[in-house]
Amino acid sequence: MKLSEIYTKNKLIFSFEVFPPKNANTENLFEELAKMNKQNPALISVTYGAGGSNRNLSLEIVKELKNHLKQPVMPHFTCICSSRKYIEKYIQEIEELGITNILALRGDEPQEIEVCYRDFKSALDLIEYLKNHSELEFAVAAYPEKHPKAKTFDDDINVLLKKQELGAKVAYTQVFFDNESYYNFYDICNKKGVTIPVIPGIMPVISYNQLKRIVELSGTKIDSKVMSYFEKYKDSKEDTIKAGIEFASLQCEKLIKFGVKGMHFYTLNKAKSSTEVIKNIT
User: Fold this and answer.
1) pLDDT tens across 44-68, in order?
2) Structural domains present in the chain
3) Is 17 one of the annotated active-site residues of the chain?
4) Which of 44, 121, 131, 279 is 20 to 30 A distant from 27 in Cα terms?
5) From the candidates 17, 137, 145, 276, which is the catalytic residue?
């Protein structure tokens, strides 16, 4: 089912994000995916590393999801350091698999790479190319707390408007822990003419140290009270997971009241927390 069809349904839509495991052992991942599939997700998105690292493993996971597990799948598709020829080949591979939806991103700059092509400098370059050279429908990223490299909030929303103009069907937000940032972002988007669904990105916390790392790397804002809340449980994995489920469930309940069309769960390759949140709110 295409993105343009998924978010027209009169029900709350759930999607999950996973990534290729570092050790390339996908057995545990597929066990977790089978658990996620019990929630009937509209999509499972599959990432890969900066500069296209582990993209081959990512594609193998996409194939397994599509052909054997029969799960709806949306590959991530980044362009930084990729040549036009490589992008063309990758589009062909994706379309031959029968994939209809992708998440189009600029991607992170790789730390170490021998050759970095600059055929595509931004997500907009990639999106325009996809529009003209494929039948794929594409989702895009959105940033409730502003993209770190955007000069102003208005500039960032203008980029989202351009993505919409080029054919984006839905936007998934970066993870956030303060709903007010999403409400404010949504209202501004609405006033500026963003009409595509802007789906909140939710990450149930499963580790205090991991939470700190994500906040540091992404620049996501987090209230000191929230950090203190999770710090209380940092020495107990079980209690941290429980607290993460409770926090994310409350967050989602409030988002539903606000009127969102769905949630995109950053699962960290673990089914339990995200699926428990869904059970709590449905």
Assistant:
1) 999 976 555 667 888 899 998 988 8
2) 12-281 (3.20.20.220)
3) yes
4) 279
5) 17
